Amino acid sequence: MYNSTMTHKITAEQQQIIRGMLHVAVLAQLENGKLYGAELLIALGKTPFTSKVGTLYPLLNRMEKDGLLVSDWQMAAGQTPRRYYWLSSVGHEKLREYREFLRHIQKIVGGK
User: Are strands 82-87 and 35-36 parallel, antiparallel or unpaired?
Assistant: First the structure.
């Protein structure tokens, strides 16, 4: 669960923004390497972008179909097969574009 230092509760409007940016948060989490679904859920759970299995896996499939992610099943002895996800070159570029866009938005709404 997200442990925020924010002093107020996240409003419904803020939650809507968070939901709309989940794909950006997924790209950011995968920027530094491969994660399998459960690892990604845990990582997102430490942010405002907490997700559920029923939301995350369809999103990952859609992002892979759109060319943003690559995945591969990996099997280790004694473990359940895990599907690992990582950014494609298109995904890295899209994350860069999103960050640039968010910096622009911050200038408009954030003042400084």
Answer: antiparallel
Q: Alpha-carbon distance 62 to 48, whole Å? A: 21
Hey, what CATH class is 12-110 in? mainly alpha
Amino acid code (one letter) for 84: Y
Q: Is the pLDDT of residue 79 over 90?
A: no
Q: How confident is the model at residue 9 (pLDDT cuts 50, 70, 90)?
A: confident
Q: Where are the domains of the chain?
A: 12-110
> Backbone dihedral region of 103: left (phi > 0), alpha (psi from -120 to 50 degrees) or beta?
alpha
Which two structure tokens, joined as six digits, stand for 51? 């997700």
Per-residue pLDDT for 2 more than 90?
Answer: no
The CA-atom distances, in angstroms, between 107 and each of 6, 11, 103, 104, 111 are 21, 22, 6, 5, 6
